[in-house]
Amino acid sequence: MGAIERSGYQFVPEFSVIQQNGAVHVYHHNQFIEEIHFQFDGKYPEIDQIEELVNHYCLKHNI
Asked: Which residues contact 38 (CB under 8 A, 6 or more apart)?
């Protein structure tokens, strides 16, 4: 699962299978902005779940 890029922002997902949680690290022009935390079930988070987090963040911040 790679980074997602939108309008100069980069969203980099990281997750722990053991703890069943993760975060999407938000960067703007290579500067760290914040983390978006999430939980998931199964071996890996669903790509759609991460896309939805990114979409929600972009709408909320007018990106």
From this structure: 21, 22, 23, 24, 45, 49, 50, 53
pLDDT confidence of residue 2: 85
Longest Cα–Cα distance of the chain, Å, equals 34
At 62, phi and psi to the nearest 5? Answer: 50, 50
Contacts of the segment 1-10: beta carbons below 8 A, 24+ positions apart: 1/44, 1/45, 1/47, 1/50, 4/50, 4/51, 4/54, 6/54, 6/58, 6/63, 7/58, 7/63, 9/33, 9/58, 9/63
Q: Contact at 8 Å (CB) between 35 and 26?
A: yes
- Quick check: 37 pLDDT over 90? yes
Q: How many residues does the chain have?
A: 63
